[in-house]
Specification:
- By secondary structure, the protein is an alpha+beta fold.
- The protein has a domain of 201 residues.
- Helix content is 33%, strand content 20%.
- The protein is built from 11 helices and 9 strands.
- The strands form 2 sheets. A 7-stranded mixed beta sheet has the order 3-4-2-1-5-9-8. It has a two-stranded antiparallel sheet with strand order 6-7.
- Strand 3 and strand 4 form a beta hairpin.
- Helix 9 crosses helix 11.
- It is globular.
Amino acid sequence: MTAVHTAEALADDLRGLGLRPGDVVLVHSSLRRVGPTEQGAATVVEGLRAATGADGTIVVPTYTAGNSLSSPLYRERVRGMSAAQVAAFREAMPGFDPATTPSTGMGAVAEWVRTAPGARRSAHPQTSLAALGPLAGRITGGHALDCHLGEASPLGHLYRLDARVLLLGVGFEACTAFHLAEYRLPAPPRRAYDCVVADGARTDGRPGRRWLRFEDVALDDGDFGRLGSWLEDWRTDTGRYLVRRGRVGAGIARLLPMALSVDLAVEWFKEHRMTGGGSAGDRSALIRPPG
């Protein structure tokens, strides 16, 4: 019979992984890979809150793609449509409202946090994050439109707060923190983004909408898996692995310090993106134990 995981058991697993009271933790998760729980996503969040305590803050991505003209989801939905059909589809696209718009593809745990009493959500119409805990307002406030995941986003606050990143049943491909490193590269490539946001009500009673266009860094997570594999081999000057790995529920979890991981990601991107050279196995030029 498949074990049903309790919040207490998940909290014990998370403590064993290294999560501590007072931690600020950015969580990416797959409820399916955690395995059956007593109350679904609520049990996972309860376990996270038990492990981090009353002073801890849980942060999750709550991205949205259904209101964007520049998302892969939009391109997939309009593929093969006529110009008139595309125009009608755009007219029907819902505007983003941080209070009500569900996230897209972020999973049940992220949605549970987003809708939890006391949770706060940043206002970015494409790459919002939600937080639950005493630092939620500080982390989610002031998310600039032209800064998806850079310094003027919750990721910038998390970096400065010495947050930790928890990959719960998911791989490094989902590690949002690496995007902050993209912003720290010299002259990162940029592109235009288009999306629609809620804007009051129209005279006919239908929800009002407003289109936004802005320029920002061209985000690219295509090499995050290779970067993560490299980080898993990285050791500090004390000989400890940077990434802690263990089982939480039925899934494999990884816990890593955000600030040092982002700093290392910057150097890895410089080597692998800007020069096109090197390999994940050649770390001689990049590894410098902190000290």
